[in-house]
Amino acid sequence: MADVQDFAIPFLIFLASISLVQTISAKIGGKAGLPPSPRALPIIGRMHLLAPIPHQAFHKLSTRYGPLVYLFIGSKPCLLIASTPEVAKGILKISEANFLNRPKVANLDYLTYGSADFATMY
């Protein structure tokens, strides 16, 4: 029992120092220049914000956070929501080369009603 107590205090100090370093590094320059984003849960990220009807969830997020919203799904940056035509035009104008020659994806075709709407996947 004494062996466990001998390692418990250094282990707790180690965990506290790791969390302190992560907090400081995130504040200094972790996400500089990114659009606003809602707070995330530890493992699932912001998946809880995606309702059964995604376009309504995206509208609710855009009314709260503005016309440009950045989302992580899990720990990966996955989604950038541009809710106004001006913002979408600016994104497409700046990063036009990233959107050229994308392969046709079956699930994207389904989600956009036979490509009648605009969406892109990386």
Automatic annotation (TrEMBL):
<dbReference type="GO" id="GO:0004497">
    <property type="term" value="F:monooxygenase activity"/>
</dbReference>
<keyword id="KW-0408">Iron</keyword>
<dbReference type="GO" id="GO:0020037">
    <property type="term" value="F:heme binding"/>
</dbReference>
<keyword id="KW-0472">Membrane</keyword>
<dbReference type="GO" id="GO:0005506">
    <property type="term" value="F:iron ion binding"/>
</dbReference>
<dbReference type="InterPro" id="IPR001128">
    <property type="entry name" value="Cyt_P450"/>
</dbReference>
<dbReference type="InterPro" id="IPR036396">
    <property type="entry name" value="Cyt_P450_sf"/>
</dbReference>
<keyword id="KW-0349">Heme</keyword>
<protein>
    <submittedName>
        <fullName>Uncharacterized protein</fullName>
    </submittedName>
</protein>
<dbReference type="GO" id="GO:0016020">
    <property type="term" value="C:membrane"/>
</dbReference>
<keyword id="KW-0560">Oxidoreductase</keyword>
<comment type="similarity">
    <text>Belongs to the cytochrome P450 family.</text>
</comment>
<dbReference type="GO" id="GO:0016705">
    <property type="term" value="F:oxidoreductase activity, acting on paired donors, with incorporation or reduction of molecular oxygen"/>
</dbReference>
<keyword id="KW-0503">Monooxygenase</keyword>
<dbReference type="Pfam" id="PF00067">
    <property type="entry name" value="p450"/>
</dbReference>
<keyword id="KW-0479">Metal-binding</keyword>
